[in-house]
Structures are given as structure tokens and as C-alpha cells.
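User: Can you predict the 3D structure for this chain?
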Amino acid sequence: MDMRDRIGAALKDAMKSRDAERLSTLRLINAAIKDKDIALRGDGGDATVGDAEVLAILGRMVKQRHESARAYEEGGRLELAEKELAEIKVIEDFLPRQLSADEIDAAVGAAIAEVGAGSIRDMGKVMAALKSKFTGQMDFGAVGPMVKDKLG
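Assistant: Here is the predicted structure, written as C-alpha cells:
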């Protein structure tokens, strides 16, 4: 079952169970995927996004919600922060398991060896190799500096 089917099935279940919060988040996910479909059609590419792109969209949604929750907490708006955190839980149901720090370190080492990276100029190749294998399983914003340290 591909990601779209899983999200569609979850949407139907949320409608049947009248789970308004989950339904709202699932509709946001569907809207983000459809927005990307429309953008791709405008670029003359495929009409739909694949599972890897859906995972990337979900990863961005989680990151955005973490940032929003942090801002709401700093602003004293705890009810809004709790709403963002609840949305994160729904989105994470569709993401693969996040890698541990040790697993990320091993993956970075393997990617460096795989592409034969020897200097910081090869960082893009290493990041591309990691993204092709571990989309949705690690925060590439945090992995970037780790790669830089190993190459530099």
C-alpha cells in the first residue's frame, strides 16, 4: 500500500470515527500533497508525487509544527502549542521510524565511504546519498553539520 492509500484509508477511518482533530490533520496532509501535485504539473513533470516526495512533505510538516509549537510556548499560548504537538503525532504515524544517533553516525560514515568523499566539496554527494536512502528517517538539517565535521 503506497503512502497516498494509507493516508486515504486513515482519512476514511477518521471520518467514520468522528475524530475531528485527526481528520483535520489528515486533510492538511492531503492538501499539501495535492499542492505538490499541482506544482509538478505546472513544471511539466509527472502528475503525481511518489512515496519519497510524500515522506519529504510529511517531514517538512513535522518540522514546521515543531517550530510553531516552540514559538507558541515562548509566547505563552500553550493551547496552540498542544494542538501543534497533537498534529505532529498524527503526521508521524505515516513516517518511518527515526534513526538513533548511533544509526545516523553509521549511515553518515557509510555514505561517505560509498561516494568516496574526501573533502568538504563532496558534501552534496554525501547528502544526496543519505536523502535517497533515509528520507523521513533523519533530520537532514541536523545531519548536515555532522557530515561537514567528518569531511572537514
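The domain at 101-151 is CATH 1.10.10.410 (Arc Repressor Mutant, subunit A). DSSP finds seven helices and no strands in the chain.
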